[in-house]
Design goal:
The chain is an all-alpha fold. The chain has 13 helices and no strands. It has one domain: Ribonucleotide Reductase, subunit A (Orthogonal Bundle), CATH 1.10.620. This is Acyl-[acyl-carrier-protein] desaturase, chloroplastic.
Length: about 350
């Protein structure tokens, strides 16, 4: 199968440059202004109020007691992924289209990357502050995990190729929308309304970002269908690596695997969800109906369209695997085992 290169030849860069007016008029409209955006303080007790300490005890600590340890492990995993944002922005800035060389470049692509990062930055901060105020966590171990993850960097097999990067971000934004949405629903089950509100709001942001990234790919399918489907096939052939797969807390070398097993076991993000994200994108981009493809493009199209059946055969195996295993201690919850 023809593979998408991890860097782009000059003629492909020109395609993205030709999209700048489209980005300015369509993509950037998915961003919200600062004044119309939610901020962390909208969800948390006011530290300047006289009743701040009582609010923390009543609203945060008492209600958080209803949440079990496995839920908190998944919430920490979600938070750490969001907190590694500096790595993700650096990845976008290093792509063959953003190249925000000064940090204040006025190109539409650079403007989008900074705006997206600004919105995403609130997610990890809000979850971090909730976890801190809950009084349930070993915050130093959590902070070390974030430190290690940003230090380790990011390797999701996209190189600087924006076709691959945008396929990846389309998938990931959909996956995080599902994950945060499921954490909100589970919090509702346990009666923790504040977490329902927090995770539901974050999920709404992720959904909006997902739409934006999938619109980029939809446009690329119009302008360059063969290269785009080859990139889609390449990312799926490699399997989409989660951005926190290098997660480490200084103790557990397999922390990411153990965290994702817990997430699967309690139904926050499973092999079935991974398959659903893929199926959604195939339908969204009407992959089966693509025409005018090169021979390599048709080969990639056949691969993508045949992949769903293979995923279904692996689905139950992946879920069953997550349900097995010995209890593992998590430093985040003071070494308690799950």
């Amino acid at each position: 199968m023809a593979l998408a290169a991890t860097t782009m030849p000059p003629e492909k860069v020109e395609i993205f440059k030709s999209m700048e007016d489209w980005v300015r008029n369509n993509l950037i409209t998915y961003l919200k202004s600062v004044e119309k955006s939610w901020q962390l303080q909208d969800f948390l007790p006011d530290p300047t109020s006289k009743g701040f300490f009582e609010q923390v005890i009543k609203e945060m600590r008492l209600r958080s007691r209803e949440l079990p340890d496995d839920y908190f492990v998944v919430l920490v995993g979600d938070m750490v992924i969001e907190e590694a944002l500096p790595t993700y922005q650096a990845h976008l800035n290093g792509s063959d289209i953003c190249r925000d060389q000064t940090g204040v470049d006025e190109t539409p692509w650079a403007t989008w990357a900074r705006g997206w990062s600004a919105e995403e930055n609130r997610h990890g901060d809000l979850l971090n502050r909730y976890l801190y105020l809950s009084g349930r966590m070993d915050m130093k171990e959590i902070e070390k995990t974030t430190h290690y993850l940003i230090w380790s960097g990011l390797d999701v097999s996209t190189g600087t190729n924006p076709y691959l990067i945008t396929i990846y971000t389309s998938f990931q934004e959909r996956a995080t929308f599902i994950s945060h949405g499921n954490t909100a629903r589970l919090a509702m089950k346990y009666g923790e309304e504040k977490v329902v509100q927090i995770c539901g709001t974050i999920a709404s942001d992720e959904k909006r970002h997902e739409i934006a990234y999938t619109e980029i790919i939809k446009k690329l399918f119009e302008l360059d269908p063969s290269e785009t489907i080859i990139a889609f096939a390449e990312m799926m052939r490699k399997k989409i690596a989660m951005p926190a797969h290098l997660m480490y807390d200084g103790h557990d070398e397999r922390l990411f695997d153990h965290c994702t097993s817990v997430a699967s076991r309690i139904g926050v993000y499973t092999a079935r969800d991974y398959m659903a994200v893929f199926a959604h994108l195939v339908a969204k981009w009407k992959v089966e109906k693509l025409t005018g493809l090169s021979s390599e493009g048709r080969e990639a199209q056949d691969f993508v369209c045949g992949l769903l059946g293979k995923m279904k055969r692996l689905e139950e195996r992946g879920i069953a695997k997550a349900e097995k295993g010995l209890p593992i201690p998590f430093s985040w919850i003071c070494g308690r085992e799950l």
